[in-house]
């Protein structure tokens, strides 16, 4: 059962993302994600400019008039949201927690999907699969997905992306669009991502907080690794320490990006301290350009 505050959060996410989908993203979503292939639509008379490879020779021979087969894209997709609910996603230092940002991003993709008559399913994971919701259509289903994400109290603390992707393969009978929302604090998922991207259209949504990149000079600070429980006190007023932290986090981010590229996974980074609209627009534009090639 969700608390009153969580219900308010669900409603706020519904209003915000529905508006963005209607105004910006429904059309871009359709352009960015391919259907499952081409299906036969009809046979019609040949017109100048038609591809001769589409000529239906049986109908042409029977009628004595050239006819071609017309195909249309089989548009309906299944979109699976793989949402990281590990302990590290309960972190956020500015406007929202990573988990809240994940719920909002999941809602945006989900509302875009149902606007285009696609199905949406959910897999929430930590170091185990916490919950799975089968794909379905409709606004009520999307609201259930948002509620499940915001109301999740995970049993696990760590992050196992490979396990989530393996579960995806077990519950899907054909390729789907897999939206993987995570802070990617899991260095052991390289092989699993490569395997998954051969069957599915995998998209990475990287959840990032400004403190993942840099530390402010605020003196002694006690840090706790939310996944392992390890604690450490550091002096953030030390310029050398902050520089070392920035360098370390930059290396980790570069390694994550290399891993995603090597696995043929398109990715977009969204942050807890700024609007994601421009980042998503650039992402959808990039996908559309790729599809047009």
In terms of topology, how is this protein built?
Blueprint: H1 4-32, E1 38-45, H2 57-63, E2 67-73, E3 78-84, H3 98-115, E4 119-125, E5 129-136, H4 139-150, H5 161-171, E6 177-182, H6 190-199, E7 201-208, E8 220-224, E9 231-235, H7 239-262, E10 266-271, H8 277-292
Parallel strand pairs: 3-4, 3-6, 6-7, 7-10
Antiparallel strand pairs: 1-2, 4-5, 8-9
Helix pairs in contact: 1-3, 1-4, 1-8, 3-4, 5-6
Describe this structure in words.
The protein is of the alpha/beta class and 293 residues long. It folds into 2 domains: 4-33 and 76-292, von Willebrand factor, type A domain (Rossmann fold, 3-Layer(aba) Sandwich), CATH 3.40.50.410; 38-73, no CATH class. It contains 8 helices and 10 strands. The chain has helices spanning 4-32, 57-63, 98-115, 139-150, 161-171, 190-199, 239-262, 277-292, and strands spanning 38-45, 67-73, 78-84, 119-125, 129-136, 177-182, 201-208, 220-224, 231-235, 266-271.
Rg estimate, integer Å: 23 Å
Which secondary-structure class do the elements indicate?
alpha/beta
CA distance, first residue to last residue: 48 Å
Q: Determine the CATH topology of the largest domain.
A: Rossmann fold
In the CATH scheme, the class of the largest domain would be Alpha Beta
The proportion of strand residues reads 15-25%
Shape designation: elongated
Q: From the structure provided, what is the oligomeric state, counting identical versus distinct chains?
A: single chain
Annotated CATH architecture of the largest domain: 3-Layer(aba) Sandwich
Q: List low-pLDDT spans.
A: none
Number of domains: 2
């Amino acid at each position: 059962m969700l608390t009153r505050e969580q219900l308010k959060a669900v409603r706020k996410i519904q209003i915000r993302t529905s508006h963005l989908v209607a105004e910006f993203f429904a059309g871009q979503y359709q352009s960015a994600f391919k259907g499952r292939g081409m299906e036969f639509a009809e046979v019609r008379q040949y017109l100048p400019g038609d591809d001769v490879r589409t000529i239906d020779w049986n109908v042409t021979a029977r009628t004595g008039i050239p006819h071609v087969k017309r195909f249309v894209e089989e548009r309906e997709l299944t979109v699976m949201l793989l949402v990281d609910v590990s302990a590290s996603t309960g972190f956020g230092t500015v406007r929202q927690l990573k988990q809240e940002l994940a719920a909002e991003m999941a809602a945006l993709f989900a509302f875009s999907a149902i606007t285009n008559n696609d199905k949406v399913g959910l897999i929430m994971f930590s170091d185990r699969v916490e919950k799975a919701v089968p794909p379905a259509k409709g606004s009520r289903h999307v609201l259930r997905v948002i509620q499940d994400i915001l109301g999740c109290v995970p049993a696990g603390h760590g992050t196992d992306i490979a396990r989530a992707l393996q579960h995806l393969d077990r519950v899907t009978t054909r390729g789907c669009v897999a939206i993987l929302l995570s802070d990617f604090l899991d260095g052991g998922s390289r092989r699993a991502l490569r395997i998954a991207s051969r069957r599915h259209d995998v998209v990475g949504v990287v959840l990032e907080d400004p403190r993942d990149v840099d530390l402010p000079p605020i003196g002694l600070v006690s840090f706790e690794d939310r996944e392992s429980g390890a604690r450490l006190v550091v002096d953030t007023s030390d310029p050398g320490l902050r520089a070392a932290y920035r360098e370390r986090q930059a290396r980790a981010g570069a390694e994550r990006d290399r891993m995603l590229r090597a696995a043929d996974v398109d990715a977009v980074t969204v942050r807890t301290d700024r609007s994601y609209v421009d980042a998503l627009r650039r992402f959808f534009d990039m996908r559309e350009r790729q599809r047009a090639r």
